[in-house]
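hey so u asked for the seq, here:
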Amino acid sequence: MLCYRTIFKATSCGALKRLASNDAASQNVCLNLVRNHDKENFLCTLLLKNPERRSAFAVRAFNVEVAKVSEKVSAGNVGVMPLKFWENTLNTLYRTDGTNIPDHPVIHELRGAIAEHKLSKMYLQRLVSARANSNLNFLTVKQLEDYAEHTVSSVLYLLLEVHGKRNVHCDHAASHLGKAQGIVNLLRSIPYQTRRNAVPIPQELLMAQGVNQERMVRNRADDKGVEEVTFSLASVAFRHLETAKGLLKTVPRTVKPIFLPAVTIERYLQRLRLANFHLTDPTVMRTDSLLPLVLYWRKLLGNY
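ran it, structure tokens below
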């Protein structure tokens, strides 16, 4: 009996150590994935408290994986199958006990977050479906706002659920902040669009200024039409940002750190304004080296 107990104890300890090791490895994969592909949101997420922070990184890592696939979609059905993989994985996570899921660190972490916080499947599905159905060719600003709502605001809704907050005030603030961040993400991507057939600027803004896609890609500092298009889009982002910041007064203090991306958006739009809305100005494109310190200080002050 003593021998049996000793063997059982040793076997159990070994199994637990392997589980703990795999668990830590999955966490590190998610953390590094967000750090390498979504640096500013990585810094914001670091300032969340545990245990919510771990689930937040799982959500953001899932978003990064889906976004990486969508970036490779240039035409036709290229990339559709990888996105179908993530769509099927979500169905499996919500339909079974999770025992038949693919052996993928992000999926393992997301499974834990879903089980612990009862995350809404709808928001995770939006992250996939919006990218699967969009070729980033927007006719109107409204279409762009809807895309930002699905691809950025959905992440914020999930982070609110991770913190146990499901109410209209929080969701309203997250909706506007997500739209602001989505538009800023688009603006920041334009200098890197030279290999694409078109830049993802709403056609109605281009037509209003008589600007074509080629001029947006060249982005000459003396092109006033391009400057006006950029100003118009930045103004839409700024209005959503200001609305979100105003709504934060009604948001519980415990979840306000979720809205730290407002600081990164504000600082980018400020640099863009000082550069006369020239997207390729070095001061606009540079890395914000003070951002980690600013984020930490603003969180301490509760000033978002």
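The radius of gyration is 21 Å. The CA atoms of residues 45 and 97 lie 28 Å apart.
lmk if thats what u needed
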